[in-house]
Amino acid sequence: MGHTLNLHHDTFQEPERSETITELLKQAGGCVVTDGGFATQLERHGADINDPLWSALCLITMPHLIRTVHKEYLQAGASVISTASYQATIQGFQSRGLSTKEAEDLLQTSVRIAQEERDSFWKEYQNKVRAGTAHAGLYQRALAAASVGSYGAYLADGSEYSVWILRSGDYGPSMTVDKLKDFHRRRLMVLADAGPDLIALETIPCKLETQALVELLAEENLRVPAWISFNSKDGTNVVSGDSLSDCVALADKCTQVRAVGINCTPPRFILDLIQAVRKVTNKLIVVYPNSGEYYDPEIKQWVESTGVSDTDFVSYVHEWRNAGAQLIGGCCRTTPNTIEAISKALREHTHAHVTN
How confident is the model at residue 248, as a pLDDT? Predict the structure, then answer.
């Protein structure tokens, strides 16, 4: 499929897509901020997403809230915003009675909304800089990352979070690499055709799905760079019990994968995981932990009592950066306040190094 969607505004020149991450890192002083929890913020605005489609339900029912959340994260300093497509699958939309075309249109809509909000925010900011009402360099033109959740996200049973649901280290003995490739293929192609800057393969729980995704990226020769991130409950392995190092090694061999990392994992585990990732790959490292709370798949809720505050969360940021993380943000239960605090901490770090 051709890449037909290419939104540019006024005279602001975007670098070639293959260089966008590199250029963004250069502009930001070596480390950029990604956004935070999407579903969390939708719920704060009153969305009821207790549904198998989760946050993707809002693509159908309340797309204006998706725009609001993107804008909030851009204002907070996020230089990468992820689309509301984590749990958006063609199969999931079809189960709600939508046609294949309607499902594909919604996937592309998720990218278009993110691009439009990014471009609108950037244009407004540049106008303020010209008018002298905003400081230049406070924001970078953000990248739009098409979010792709794991097969477990589609199952809507917490599979991507919970070790005990996964049998034999994968999605059951009947699951194969080819079946997972068939599940992901069309969604990846449709999202890539919408022209995002990145594809974010998120919360990957096992080696089998990692293999399927890296093979698929190579087979389809998608012209959009990707990152792939895993989650861990023990600070050593991915949630299936497979070795994180083995999963990262698979991703390292894929030229389409520009960054590898960790998401939706308690902050206390991140430093050791960054160090483990760096031993296996020289690719960029992305980390966006959850708040430290625990997802209970039985009641389909986050258990709040074990979470850390924004202040505690941000206290980790400098050690993550020093260990090699180059993209840092938040996942479930983090908010624009978290992202604003991370952005401020990283700006202060960069300013201190420039002035010393």
Answer: 98
